[in-house]
Specification:
22% strand; globular
Length: 193
């Protein structure tokens, strides 16, 4: 019964409208001139993090990306990996948009039901010379629509990571994967400095 009430609350707002506000807020932060100097990039990143933490289901993305190998992780490893992978995804996403943002616009195209509680929100990033289709798979969590996968030009973020993780976990343990992601996060932090 709890699941129904969460779904019902989320469905009071259409999925496309639930994403429009956060994405428009993120664009406003990216366009804000006070963040153009290098010294303000970290403050901008923190503001963007506040937005994406509210709209992305990082735990769900992690579980889907690991796939059936998730059962190989101990409860403690699951918690650690969710935290590490959330940092990896968030920093990768934010570094990319901060580094390449050039006054792009987001056009919201449509929403399509994948099931009673899952939707695909179709958008297009409009750049000076072309556009890129970016679609978001969303589902209701805690009474709000949350992104559980992103498709850029039809390529699924979750499927891409699942392929990578599956290759590693076929040969190595969850502990090895955890250390790889931890090392990537450390390397990412060093690059920033």
């Amino acid at each position: 019964m709890a699941s129904f009430s969460v779904t019902a609350r989320a469905q009071e707002i259409r999925p496309i409208d639930a994403l429009r506000g956060p994405l428009d807020s993120a664009l406003a932060i990216l366009q804000d001139p006070r963040y153009r100097s290098g010294s303000e990039r970290e403050a901008q990143k923190e503001k963007l993090w506040e937005i994406i933490r509210k709209v992305f289901d990082f735990e769900g993305i992690t579980v889907l990306a690991v796939g059936q190998n998730w059962k190989l992780f101990s409860p403690e490893q699951k918690k650690i990996f969710i935290d590490l992978f959330t940092t990896r995804l968030g920093n990768s996403y934010l570094n990319k948009i901060q580094g390449s943002f050039n006054n792009e616009k987001v056009e919201f195209l449509s929403e399509e039901a994948l099931s009673p509680a899952k939707y695909l929100v179709k958008t297009k990033i409009i750049r000076e010379v072309d556009s890129i289709p970016v679609d978001y798979r969303v589902r209701p969590i805690d009474g709000a629509w949350r992104i559980y996968d992103v498709l850029v030009e039809g390529v699924s973020l979750v499927a891409n990571y699942r392929s990578q993780f599956d290759g590693i976990l076929r040969k190595d343990s969850p502990a090895v994967l955890i250390e790889r992601v931890r090392s990537q996060n450390i390397a990412q932090e060093k690059e920033k400095k």
